[in-house]
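User: Okay, second chain of the day. Same drill as before: sequence in, C-alpha cells out.
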Amino acid sequence: MASLLHTASPKFFEPDYPGGLLHTYAAGTTTNKATYSDPNERTDSQNANPVVLDSAGRATIYGSGLYSFVFKDSAGTTVWSQDNIRILALSNFALTVLDDTSAAAVRSTLGLGAAAVLGATQNTSNNVVVWNTSNNYPAGNGSAITNVAAANVTGWYWPRGYLSGFKLSNSGSTLTLNVAVGTCRDSTNAKNITLSSALSKVLQSSGSWTQGTGQNGLDTGAVAGKTWYHVYVILDNNDANADILFSTSASSPTMPTGYTTGVFRRIGSVKTNSPVTQIDLFNQYADDFMYYSPVVNVNNVTVDASELTMTLSTVPSGFNFKAYITTQFNDADGIYIYDLGADGSTVPSWGAGSLTAPLAMLVSYSTETIAAPMEVWTNTSQQIGAISASASNKIWISVRGYQDRRGRDD
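Assistant: Same drill. C-alpha cells below.
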C-alpha cells in the first residue's frame, strides 16, 4: 500500500504557489515515477506528472519508494529540487501494528504469548534464556513449557564430553563418598545431567540402592574389600532429578528403579581396603586423583631384556589412566618403563634406536639404588611394561595417584 507524502493535501512553500508544478522522478534520474491520489494506487487515481497544485498551492500525493522531486512555479521556473526522498510503503499488517495502542496489543498482533514480556535475558543461574512471568522456559511461540528443570532440558546442550564439578572426597575410616555439585553431558552425549546439591553416598554391606543423600549407593550386592567401584551420576526417567550410583562395571551399571532410561556419566572411581572398613583416602585435583600416601604396587621384582608386564592394582581398570609412579631399581644397567598400547602387544627391544615411544628411562652408572618419579599410561587391565639389559635388575614401583579424564575425550 502506498503512503501519504505529508498531510492529506500538502502545501508547498510560502507564499502560495497556485498552479505550481511538482515533477516526480525515480531517484537519481529524470525518468518519471508515478504518484497517486489514492493509497491503493489504482490506475484511475494516478496523478498527472507534473502534479499541478490547486489555487491554494496544495495536492494529494501518495507514493512508495525513492523519488527525486523538482518543484516549479506556474511559469515553469524551478523553485526547489531534492533527490532521494523516501515514501515508505506500509502493508495493512504494518498499519495494524502501528495502530495498536499497547505492548499487549502488539504482542497479540504479532502472535506472541505472554513470555515475550521479558524478552531475552538471564535466569537466576545466569543462563541466557527467555522466561515468562512465571519463571517458566518458553516454547518457540512464546508460550510456557511448565515443570521442566532448565538444567536438564534437551533443547540446549553442553559440548560433547563436557564435565564440570562433581569433585569427589572422603575422610577417615568410612565407606561414605562425598560428591560436590556439577553438570555434564551423559555418556552418550544425548542429555545434560546436573547435580544441583552436594550429596554423600554409602558403599553398603546390605540393602539396596536408595535415592537421596546419606543413602546406600551400590547398584547390586554388598561392598567387597580391595575392589574398585566406578562412581556415576545418574538421571531419572523424568530427566528431572540426579543422584549418585556405585558399580563394579566400567560402562554398564545396573540402574535402579526410576532411572531405567540409562542416562548416566562416570565421574570417577574409588577403591576399598581389606578388611572392608573404608574407601582408600585420596585428594582430587581436577582430573588428578592423588593418594594420601604412595602405595607399593611392584615389590622387588626382577626385570630383564624380555617384556615384564606389571599390574598397578591401585589404578582403576576399564579405561586407560595416566599413572603417577615412583620407580626404584638397583643395577648398573638402564631400565625402560612403557605403556603396552591399546592392544597390549607393543614390546620394545633393548638397544639404541630400537625402542618404541612412549618410554620413561632410568639409567644408573653404578650399583647404587636410584629412584625417580614417572608418568605412564596403563591399559584397560591396569598394566604397564618394563625391560632392562640385565637379568639381575630389581624394580620397585609405588603409585602416587593417577589421571582420570572421565569421558572428556570420548
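Residues 115-123, 144-151, 351-359 have pLDDT under 50 and may be disordered.

User: Thanks, on to the next one.
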